[in-house]
Specification:
The protein is mainly β. It has one domain: Beta-grasp domain (Ubiquitin-like (UB roll), Roll). It has two helices and seven strands, in the order ββαββαβββ. Strands 2-1-7-3-5 form a five-stranded mixed β-sheet. Strands 4-6 form a two-stranded antiparallel sheet. β1 and β2 form a beta hairpin. It is globular, with a radius of gyration of 12 Å. The structure holds FE2/S2 (inorganic) cluster (FES). The site of FE2/S2 (inorganic) cluster (FES) has 13 residues, from loops.
Length: 94
């Protein structure tokens, strides 16, 4: 298990914290009190969409995202884990 420094950009605010890279990004955001968008939490509704602007994330399953969207750095944070020492996810740039 490794730790990732994560930055979440939401409504123009930068939220920074550390997380285990075995954990789901949305779950950790919510447990840190961040009002991150979400609904189904199962990779279907796309409410939790964010864009990786630095670092890497991993989705075991692409959910409803197309290969093109994934290629543009879009992720569903409810099914994504960090896969780099640092990661930035922008909810505002989608
Ligand atoms: S919360 Fe529905 S796809 Fe992530």
């Amino acid at each position: 298990m490794n730790t990732t420094k994560i930055t979440l950009i939401l409504d123009g605010e930068h939220h920074k914290f550390n997380m285990n890279n075995d954990d789901i990004i949305l779950d950790v955001a919510l447990s840190n009190g961040i009002d991150a968008p979400h609904s189904c939490q199962g990779g279907i509704c796309m409410t939790c969409l964010g864009r990786v602007t630095n670092g890497k994330a991993q989705m075991d399953d692409p959910g409803m995202l197309s290969d093109e969207e994934i290629g543009e750095g879009l992720i569903l944070t409810c099914i994504s884990k960090p896969n780099s020492e640092e990661i930035t996810i922008d909810y505002d740039d989608i």
